[in-house]
Amino acid sequence: MFYPRNFLNFTTINLINMSNTDNTLEAMPHNGKLLTNYLLNNQIIRAKLARKLNISNTSVYQYAESPSLQMHILWKASIALNHNFIAEVGEKLPVDYITTREKELQEQVETLQKELERLNIELEVYKNIVGK
């Protein structure tokens, strides 16, 4: 197969740059083990998952052995098992990130904390009035 000269240089440079020579990077989680652990912890047999995904039992066993599963497989398994494997992988990513939903919940908590503080102050005022 013929590859243009620039393509080979570009590919070689990118492979070198992408190689994990820095040991500070975390290893990617084994996606097959995440799936297998979920099935074991929730006492779900692989055949049940295979039926829900409309695939063979052998495919589920192959998923379990695979260190990296395609996004569509994680997506379908998440829906079939009502568990967010994509978020679970994301939690293991060594990068701080807050989702939009988490940010909304954080804002709601802050609003409720302020409301609670205001109500506690009102309660103290009412206690002082009744106590006099």
Question: Which terms summarize this structure?
Answer:
single chain, 132 residues, mainly alpha, 434 Repressor (Amino-terminal Domain), 2 domains, 7 helices, 70% helix, 0% strand
Break the fold down into its secondary structure elements and pairings:
Elements: H1 5-18, H2 31-41, H3 46-53, H4 57-65, H5 71-81, H6 85-92, H7 100-131
Helix pairs in contact: 2-4, 3-4
Model description:
It is a single chain. The protein has seven helices and no strands. The chain is elongated, with a radius of gyration of 25 Å. It has two domains: 27-96, lambda repressor-like DNA-binding domains (434 Repressor (Amino-terminal Domain)), CATH 1.10.260; 98-132. It has 132 residues and is mostly helical.
Q: Over all CA atoms, what is the radius of gyration? A: 25 Å
Q: Write down how many β-strands occur, each being a DSSP E stretch of 2 or more residues.
A: 0
Tally of individual domains: 2
Sheet/helix structural class: mainly alpha
Largest sheet: none
Strand content: under 5%
CATH topology of the largest domain: 434 Repressor (Amino-terminal Domain)
Contiguous low-pLDDT stretches (5 residues minimum) are 6-24
What is the number of helical segments per DSSP (H or I, 4+ residues)?
7
Based on Cα principal axes, name the global outline.
Answer: elongated
User: How many angstroms does the end-to-end distance come to?
Assistant: 94 Å
Helix content: over 70%
Written as H for each helix and E for each strand, in order along the chain, the element string is HHHHHHH
Task: Name the average pLDDT.
Answer: 83
CATH homologous superfamily (4th level) name of the largest domain: lambda repressor-like DNA-binding domains
Q: Write the CATH architecture name of the largest domain.
A: Orthogonal Bundle
The top-level CATH class of the largest domain is Mainly Alpha
